[in-house]
Amino acid sequence: MNITEKILAKHAGLDEVSANDTVTAKVDIAMSHDGTTPPTIKVFEKLTDKVWDPEKIVLVFDHNIPANTIGSANFQQVVREFAKKQKINNIYKQGEGICHQVLPEMGHVKPSSLIVGADSHTCTYGAFGAFSTGLGATDLALVYAKGETWLNVPESLKINVNGKLPEHTFSKDVILNIIKTLGSYGGTYKSLEFHGDTIDAMSPDARMTITNMVIECGAKNGIMIPNKQTREYLAQRNITDYEITTPDKDAEYEKTYDFNVDDLQPQVACPHNVDNVCDVDKIQGTTINQAVLGSCTNGRYEDLAQAAEILKGQKVHEDVQLLVFPASRKIYQDAIDTGIIQTLLESNTIICNPGCGPCLGAHMGVMDDDMKAISTTNRNFLGRMGSAKSYVYLSNPQVVAASAITGEITNPSEI
Ligand SMILES: CC(C)[C@H](C(=O)O)[C@@H](O)C(=O)O
Ligand code: SF4
Predict the structure, then answer these.
(1) If you measure from the C-alpha of residue 274 to the centroid of ligand 2, how many angstroms do you get, rounded to a whole number?
(2) Which domains are delineated in the chain?
(3) What's the helix, strand, coil split of the chain in %, to 5?
(4) What positions does the domain Aconitase/3-isopropylmalate dehydratase large subunit alpha/beta/alpha occupy (predicted)?
(5) Predicted model pTM
(6) What sign results for the dihedral spanned by CA atoms 308, 311, 313, 317?
(7) Which ligand is nearest to the CA of 298?
């Protein structure tokens, strides 16, 4: 069995499973946020009046925090009342950050565990060797009631990534290049199992950027064997009691892909699809008027540090607004402590509170017709950040920082 098959077999109480089997699996952690908890509650209340285990449910306010409409304020009230009634103590409702950052940061993510969440980027926790995937609110309601869910065991693709990333090129470029190769639908309902020395050398921050985006080629989950840095991250959160799942020598994969990153250039996903990817030099010179640094993809400490390296002593172009929203309060605090926030402020950056911010076009940076953004987020779909006549280009934190300075898409090596 490969890693995903082993974890699913264990949670289904079976000795062995193979791709395309349907199993009922026990869930270790279930998550929903301010946008998806209210519809989950609606279905849940038709089923039962008591959650299966309040300690295993995590609720996060991140999509519209602070509330931007009366409707989202109402949603948050509904979630607060539900948490009180169900005695759910793991509720992060005061701007702690984006769910996919808060869960690992607060110690809810363990290797080899099974995590589901009513958000498509729940796949992020695969960076820690967990099987994690997004569910719709209806399926999640059943998990809240019973603590289990059904899953088809996905086919697995083995993704080997080897080589040393050149300067100004990061894990975001690795995953954009993988999505370019597989295509937006190329991973549909598959498990992406990552191996190789590039992945082994990556920090948890960098690894999370990769597993976060596997859904952008349709994958069910992405998974990595926890490396030394990841195990240290877990130990800092007192997580030491876990198993590490590795694949059998004769594990089955539908296909194997080999990537070498020695010559990889910063990548840009052009409107309006995440697989519409080219080297930054090909699109260099495109005028932008918004730059976004943040999200569950690239709003982590390392991302802010990489951007600050480029922005130090520079000013954001007068026709651009650079919006920075750290992925969590802890990251925000760390970036204050090390002077990164000061550097960003001196460059005329707008620092927003931790949360999803403009990533999905709900608030704090909604775009009008013809506006163009370069962003570290994960989706550039038509209308994603506002008007259906606006444009979103996705890239790494240094391309975003460099472009914010020049007002056009720029290779950071030119700053
Ligand atoms: C609002 C939520 C359901 C959605 C998701 O599931 O991904 C959002 O987080 C997104 O990034 O589009
Ligand atoms: S930061 Fe963006 S992609 Fe991530 S959960 Fe929030 S809205 Fe979704």
Answers:
(1) 15
(2) 3-259 (3.30.499.10), 268-414 (3.30.499.10)
(3) 40, 20, 40
(4) 5-282
(5) 0.98
(6) negative
(7) 2
According to the model, what pLDDT value does residue 33 have?
Answer: 98
The pair of three-digit structure tokens given for residue 248, joined into one six-digit string: 């059998």
| Residue-wise pLDDT tens digits, 179-196 | 999 999 999 999 999 999
Distance CA 103, CA 335 (A): 19
Instruction: Count the neighbouring beta carbons within 10 Å of the beta carbon of residue 378.
Output: 26
Decide whether any atom of ligand 2 lies within 6 Å of the 356 Cβ. yes
CB-based contact 211:123 (threshold 8 Å): yes
Round the CA-based radius of gyration of the chain to a whole number and report it.
Answer: 20
The one-letter code for the residue type at 175 is I
Residue 20: the pLDDT is 97
301 phi and psi angles, rounded to 5 deg = -55, -50
What residues form DSSP beta bridges with 224? 194
Q: Residue 98: helix, strand or coil by DSSP? A: coil
Angle of CA points 254, 114, 170, to nearest 5°: 65
Our mutation pick for probing the ligand 1 site, out of 31, 32, 72, 119, counting the most ligand atoms within 8 A of Cβ, is 119
